[in-house]
Amino acid sequence: MSLETLVGNAILGIDTLWGGDVLCASGTGRFIADSWFSDEPLPLAYTVAEAAPVRASGGVSAKTPDAAAIGRYLAQVDIPGAIEGLKGAGAESGGLRGEYLAGLALCFETMWDLAMEILGRGAPVPYERCVEASTGRPPEPSDPAQKRERVAQLLGGSGDLLAAVDAWRARHRVSMASIRLLGAAVIGHFDQLTAAHVVPHLPPEFATVPRANIQFLPIQDAWFSGSMNYLGRARRPDGSPEYEATYEINASLETSLPEFLQLVSHEVVPGHVTTFAYLQDLYARGEVGFEATVLTMNTRAAALFEGIANNAILMAYGVTEVDQLPDPDLQIGVLLALLQDDAKNQSSFLTWGEGAAQASVAETLRRDFLVSPERADKLSGAWGRHPLLGRMYLPVYRSGTMRIAELRRRYPASRLLPALYGACGLVDITTLERAL
User: Fold this and answer.
1) Percent of the chain beyond pLDDT 70?
2) From the CA atom positions of the chain, what is the Rg in Å?
């Protein structure tokens, strides 16, 4: 069986089992597989007739999984066999590619066992195993103290910090009614900064790749704050990619302009859209393998991507520390965004590591990490208590961010940035430094 078939069946098999649809243009339908832009035929794990009912029902993510539909699907698609094949292909490939494939297999084994736990067909999966699979490190609580102290200093250092943050957000609030126009302006701003401070350190072949071919789309009542959907399936007349993406932003999201600036750098340029576009270009030029076209959540690759995205605003300005950013309000916005990702990890740790109740977790996130009431509710509930996202995805934000920040302090941009964007080979958060 070809490597492409093994990769496709392992990823889309797990994705389908959890209710994902990689061809859905909306983040409301995607789940584990973030992209399919190779023009390769979809594998059996996606196309078999028994897959559609599982996707439609939400798979094991549903409140009440359709066990009969899942059983019929698993009778047709050997997901454990595909994962074992992927593991074997990694061992045969060796090197960085082999380690990347082995990391994928490790994460998919964990996701499979989590699914079996939900279906009552397997033992509970230890929380430590989940976090180590997706981040390469054991779970640990977040410490917000240093960021909180800096926010307090920037806001004047007296009184109720949470009230001061709420008032600051109110003064700088973004109107969702103008989000498309604002988004276009901010994307242009960060594309120019990226051209000045990131692109000069990258291979010249990247110069013609669109870094931010994206549309902003407000979406009502989503369980997420926003979803970057990298599509990558449109083609120019000469057959080359258009590198297109959308960003769905929750219409009920309450955010400030400085936090929105961080969001655009994170999701678009030089963050996620730029990262995925460069990987698509590398694949189109034959520089990386098929696995670079089926990018995933809940994996060590995702930890790398979130780490890049959370450091993207610093990369765009050509600095390594938040206090080197040119505006105090921008510093506050970035610190609050980083505190939110610390809160994601804390929600995971408290919920799954310590068994805390949702109300207690929400209170902690609001009080200690200065998140909005809407974020406290979502992160402690829909995200934090989800059996997969809560245990495997929420920790990757903080873990990836801290490790990329540390590497940016140690290595010059001319050495690190090409490796971050895949120019030294496809890597994840545990193999990146070896690519240097």
Assistant:
1) 98
2) 21
What φ, ψ does residue 386 adopt, rounded to 5°? -70, 135
Region for 241 from its dihedrals, namely left if φ exceeds 0, alpha if ψ lies in -120 to 50, beta otherwise: beta
Q: How close are the terminal C-alpha atoms of the chain, in Å? A: 32
Phi and psi at 273, nearest 5°, equal: -60, -45
Cα distance between residue 344 and residue 355, in whole Å: 15
What mean pLDDT comes out for the span 210-220? 86
Q: What's the pTM?
A: 0.96
Q: 191 by DSSP, 3-state: which?
A: helix
Specify the pLDDT at position 222. 60
Closest by CA position to 429, among listed 341, 261, 299 = 299
Annotate 255-304 with DSSP letters as a single string. -BHHHHHHHHHHHTSSSHHHHHHHHHHHHHTTSS-GGGGS-BSSSHHHHH
| pLDDT computed for residue 217 by the predictor | 80
**Which helix (H) or strand (E) segment is 376 a member of?**
helix 373-378
Q: φ, ψ for residue 105 (rounded to 5)? A: -60, -40
Residue-wise burial string across 350-387, b where 16 or more C-beta atoms lie within 10 A, e elsewhere: bbbbeebebeebbebbbebbbbbeebbbbbbbebbbbb
* Cα–Cα dist 242/236, whole Å: 6
The pLDDT mean for the chain works out to 95
The beta strand positions in 68-196, using DSSP E, are none
Which residue reads 């080979």 in tokens? Answer: 425
39 phi, psi to nearest 5 deg: 70, 5
Per-residue confidence (pLDDT) for residue 220, from 0 to 100: 66
pLDDT, one tens digit per residue, over 154-163 is 999 778 999 9
CB 77 within 8 A of CB 44: yes
What is the rounded distance in angstroms from the CA atom of residue 286 to the CA atom of residue 280?
10
Please give the Cα distance from 110 to 415 (Å, whole number).
33
